[in-house]
């Protein structure tokens, strides 16, 4: 049932009560839905590797990225500290002719392909597992659920739900397209039984928006209108007991959001209440082409975040192996 567009507060509160995982893994839990991704699940997922072909699911980290400065999010700034020019000029001061190059990068941690950690979003000042937000994230960072707490476990069965290919025009959903549970299930049905989503899976939803941005230019990709998951999928996300979900869009959920006055309401329930890890700005296009060719949409995926202590989100280069 579609929520009342005029009542985001009521819809959020009702959904949060229905899908809360608070206390499910104990009062001290810091991993949320990543608890579903067990060693047994990981062993089983490793058997999915058939060809050994691997696919990066990351966008580039460079000055040509999509960021437009919203809340000081900029594209990466890459600066060389030592270069071949310095070496050729003999200006590096090293002995016996050795030379080298070094560089540095400055960037927001969520400027390209990234995970939202459990300390990224709060609901009325409350963080994952019912903790007060000011007791979780301070100026020193996230001292409880920092992204380093899931540096180890994020490797397991990946499932690509190519909604853009199944339901879109030429493989792309239009901006503002709200992907419902029915759309997700229709995609699974079209792709076949090996696309069924289960406990501990890492689900990658392809909308095709990145394909469009790559062809036509970034435009408003960062923060503007986009296809994405409907707020109504909150029950599906909870019921499926997945470990994580990622999309090829900036904000995961449909934009404009499905309420008259709201900002990322699905985040507000999924992260602090379900404890769900959300990936954004992933690039599944090459993987999607391979999956479409042989009809197999499950794979082994390694998606560890960069181990930045206390970070509420982190960049990564997910690798899918088929």
Number of domains: 2
Q: Residue share in helices? A: 10-25%
* H-E order: HHEEHEEEEEHEHEHEHEHEHEEE
Task: Let me know the largest β-sheet.
Answer: 9 strands, mixed
CATH topology of the largest domain: Glucose Oxidase, domain 1
Adjacency order of strands in the biggest sheet: 1-15-13-7-9-11-12-4-14
Strand content: 15-25%
| Unreliable sequence segments | none
What is the CATH C level class of the largest domain, in words?
Alpha Beta
Rough outline: globular
**In the CATH hierarchy, what is the superfamily of the largest domain?**
Putative cyclase
- Cα(first) to Cα(last) distance is 37 Å
The mean pLDDT is 97
CATH A-level architecture of the largest domain: 3-Layer(bba) Sandwich
| Cα-atom radius of gyration | 20 Å
- The structural class is alpha/beta
Specify the number of helices. Answer: 9
Strands, total number: 15
Folded structure, characterized:
By secondary structure, this protein is an alpha/beta fold. It has two domains: 8-71 and 108-321, Putative cyclase (Glucose Oxidase, domain 1, 3-Layer(bba) Sandwich), CATH 3.50.30.50; 75-105, no CATH class. Helices cover 23% and strands 17% of the residues. The chain has nine helices and 15 strands. The strands form four sheets. The chain has a nine-stranded mixed sheet with strand order 1-15-13-7-9-11-12-4-14, with helices on both faces. A two-stranded antiparallel ribbon has the order 2-3. Strands 5-6 form a two-stranded antiparallel sheet. Strand 5 and strand 6 (141-142) form a beta hairpin. The mean pLDDT is 97.
């Amino acid at each position: 049932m579609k929520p009342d567009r005029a009542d985001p507060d009521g819809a959020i509160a009702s959904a949060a009560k229905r899908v809360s995982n608070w206390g499910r893994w104990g009062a001290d839990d810091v991993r949320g839905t990543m608890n579903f991704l067990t060693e047994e699940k990981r062993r089983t997922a490793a058997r999915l590797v058939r060809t050994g072909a691997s696919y990066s699911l990351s966008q580039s980290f460079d000055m040509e990225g999509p960021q437009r400065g919203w809340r000081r999010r900029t594209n990466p700034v890459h600066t060389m500290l030592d270069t071949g020019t310095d070496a050729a000029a003999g200006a590096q001061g090293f002995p016996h002719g050795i030379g080298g190059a070094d560089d540095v990068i400055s960037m927001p941690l969520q400027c390209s392909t990234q995970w939202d950690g459990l300390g990224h979003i709060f609901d009325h000042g409350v963080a994952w597992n019912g903790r007060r937000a000011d007791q979780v994230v301070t100026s020193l960072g996230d001292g409880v659920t920092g992204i380093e707490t899931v540096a180890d476990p994020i490797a397991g069965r990946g499932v690509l739900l190519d909604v853009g290919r199944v339901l879109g025009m030429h493989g792309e959903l239009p901006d503002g397209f709200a992907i419902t549970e029915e759309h997700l299930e229709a995609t699974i049905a079209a792709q076949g039984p090996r696309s069924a989503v289960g406990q501990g899976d890492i689900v990658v939803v392809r909308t095709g928006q990145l394909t469009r941005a790559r062809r036509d230019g970034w435009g408003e990709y960062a923060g503007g209108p986009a296809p994405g998951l409907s707020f109504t999928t909150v029950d599906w996300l909870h019921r499926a007991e997945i470990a994580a979900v990622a999309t090829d869009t900036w904000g995961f959920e449909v934009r404009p959001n499905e309420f008259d006055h709201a900002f990322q309401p699905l985040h507000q329930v999924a992260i602090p209440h379900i404890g769900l890890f959300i990936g954004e700005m992933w690039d599944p296009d090459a993987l999607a082409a391979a999956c479409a060719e042989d009809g197999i949409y499950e794979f082994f995926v390694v998606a560890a975040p960069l181990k930045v202590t206390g970070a509420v989100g982190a960049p990564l280069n997910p690798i899918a192996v088929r």
